[in-house]
From TrEMBL:
InterPro entries hit by this protein: Cyclodeamin/CycHdrlase, Formintransfe-cycloase-like_sf
Hydrolase listed as a keyword: yes
Taxonomy, superkingdom: Bacteria
Origin organism lineage: Bacteria, Bacillati, Bacillota, Bacilli, Bacillales
Species: Paenibacillus elgii
Keyword vocabulary terms for this entry: Hydrolase
SUPFAM superfamilies: Methenyltetrahydrofolate cyclohydrolase-like
Domain Cyclodeaminase/cyclohydrolase: 10-189
Molecular-function annotations in GO: hydrolase activity
Name the UniProt record assigns to this protein: Methenyltetrahydrofolate cyclohydrolase
Length: 213
């Protein structure tokens, strides 16, 4: 089954397949779906924060809605890309390795597939950070009746970022370029620190506003 089918399957089908013995959809795909759900929560909170009562927030709300629409599309692409690059990696592992020439070709294919399998979750982490930054912008002024949903969106974005970080790290062992692996590790660490800080800030605001009801 081609990866492009996955996005349009039912939730039940996706969950069943993710829990099966098949390797796809796997953790990277689930992380992309979680980020898309985070974007949906932030979108809903934004849409319910429109009108005269939220006049001062309208520019930010409009920008957040545009961001979330774009991020949702990115999550769809990354979900499919995660499945595709994993399949490419598995094909590379199965290449023949009898002769020196075959071994060199196989190693080259593995290197290329491992780099792709690392780049996809790195892009997902960037998506999550953008979503968290956008959520933080409207946390203080959005509709108080859906501020908890905005907090849920932030939690999903951060969980997705953490999950994508694990995917990056397990793929680093397949990279022969030690300098590149070190660079990726530093990027992951920096992005996870920012994701944690943003999530904490959003939740602090959310809890404060809930307590003030």
């Amino acid at each position: 089954m081609t990866s492009t089918v996955w996005w349009n399957r039912t939730v039940g089908e996706f969950v069943q397949e993710a829990g099966s013995a098949e390797p796809t959809p796997g953790g990277g795909s689930v992380a992309a779906l979680a980020a898309a759900l985070g974007a949906s929560m932030a979108s809903m909170a934004s849409r319910l924060s429109q009108g005269e009562a939220f006049a001062a927030l309208q520019t930010s709300v409009g920008e957040v809605l545009e961001t979330m629409n774009r991020l949702t599309g990115a999550c769809e692409e990354l979900l499919e890309a995660d499945i595709r690059v994993f399949e490419e990696y598995m094909r590379a592992l199965k290449l023949p390795k009898e002769s020196e020439r075959e071994r060199a070709a196989r190693r080259s294919a593995i290197d290329e597939a491992a780099a792709s399998a690392t780049a996809v979750p790195l892009r997902l982490m960037q998506v999550c950070l953008e979503g968290l930054r956008a959520a933080e912008r409207i946390a203080e002024g959005c509709n108080k009746h859906v501020v908890s949903d905005l907090g849920i969106g932030a939690l999903l974005f951060e969980a997705s970022a953490q999950s994508a970080g694990l995917t990056v790290r397990i793929n680093l062992s397949s990279l022969r370029n030690a300098d590149l692996a070190t660079q990726y590790e530093r990027q992951v660490s920096a992005m996870l620190q920012e994701a944690e800080a943003l999530k904490t800030q959003v939740l602090r605001t959310v809890h404060s506003r809930i307590a003030g009801h």
